[in-house]
Amino acid sequence: MNKRINIVLPETTIRAIDRIAKPGRRSRFINEAVRHFVSHRSTEALRAQLERAAVRDQDLDREISAEWSAVDKEAWQQLDIKEQKEPTIRGAGRSTSRHSTRR
What share of the chain is helix, strand, coil (3-state, %, to 5)? Predict the structure, then answer.
């Protein structure tokens, strides 16, 4: 079932439609364009695009992860060395749990 509507478009848009659509085919062209736009902008379509990109880029993601893993490991090693050099102060990290505060 078709329904007639009135819309207002800029003249440049109408000229673009008329260049592409055959005479008497504006409605069909606009219908197809709107359906195409909606199908590519819907949540499901965006999710599918993201999934395709994830599969496509998985090798690159692994390479980046491997590169940053070395940097991350080095940073943790430096923190471990720093902690080993600092003297621990007895009682500084006292527990405040209910069990330890009972007298």
Answer: 70, 0, 30
